[in-house]
Amino acid sequence: MNQGPTYGLSAKVAQKIAGKRDPQKEAEAQAWIEELIGEKFPEGVAYEDALKDGVILCKLINVLVPGSVKRINAQKMPFKQMENIGNFLTAVQGYGVPASDLFQTVDLYERRNIPAVTQCFFAMGRVAQTKPDYQGPMFGPKPSEENIRLFTEEQLMAGRKEVSLQMGSNKFANQSGLNFGVRRQVT
Questions:
Q1: How far apart, in whole angstroms, are the C-alpha atoms of residue 86 and residue 75?
Q2: How far does CA 101 lie from the centroid of its chain?
Q3: pLDDT class for 63, splitting at 50, 70, 90?
Q4: 78-116 b/e (C-beta count within 10 Å ≥ 16 → b)
Q5: Cα angle for residues 98, 38, 124 (degrees, 5° grid)
Q6: CA 102 to CA 43: how far, in whole Å?
Q7: Total-model pTM
Q8: What does each C-alpha distance from 44 to 40, 47, 63, 81 come to in angstroms?
Q9: What average pLDDT score do residues 16-41 get?
Q10: If we measure between CA atoms, which residue out of 125, 162, 108, 104 comes closest to residue 33?
């Protein structure tokens, strides 16, 4: 029986994803979540296991956008837990997190891609920093800001007169005389 996630390509993909996990980033994400929701993750429970039922996720988005997840399912039935994760993902996308930073429900529920889950939290932190009503801790990379440069007409004209190295002024260097391999001989 050489099938399943422990053999072949599935095993290699799983190893590659597991290699991308960063315990430090997961700890940062966990600390940010705990500070926002005002409660600690369950003691002795792994990061992904604490998030698996979706309850913490729903509490998190409800802190950022009150009432965005109307009903949090506390039941232990798998489809109810996956419904929590799906509700979280819908609310997060509405909050402004790009779809490229979201994860799939199975990435968390089946532990297929935990780094994608952590990346989603960092994206949430980045988006939260752009919201004027956000008063929580800084988390994730600071979003870039527009930096408009205004040049005078005189500066623009001076720039046009400047010859850059990309324009072939590098001591008349060119590619003449460079041959790669033998020329093709047609007979």
A1: 15
A2: 4
A3: very high
A4: eeebbbbbebbbebbeebebeeebbbebebbbebbbbbb
A5: 10
A6: 27
A7: 0.71
A8: 11, 9, 25, 20
A9: 88
A10: 125
For residue 185, give both structure tokens: 């001989």
For residue 100 the two structure tokens come to 């490229």
| Distance, C-alpha 92 to centroid of its chain | 13
Q: Which residue has the tokens 């029986």?
A: 1
Number of neighbours of residue 19 by Cβ within 10 angstroms: 9
The closest alpha carbon to 120, from 179, 64, 187, 174, belongs to 64
pLDDT in tens, 88-128: 999 999 999 999 999 999 999 998 899 999 999 999 999 99
DSSP 8-state class, residue 167: G
Per the listing, tokens 């009150």 go with: 66
In angstroms, the Cα distances linking 64 to 112, 114, 166 are 27, 22, 49
21: which 2 tokens?
């996990």
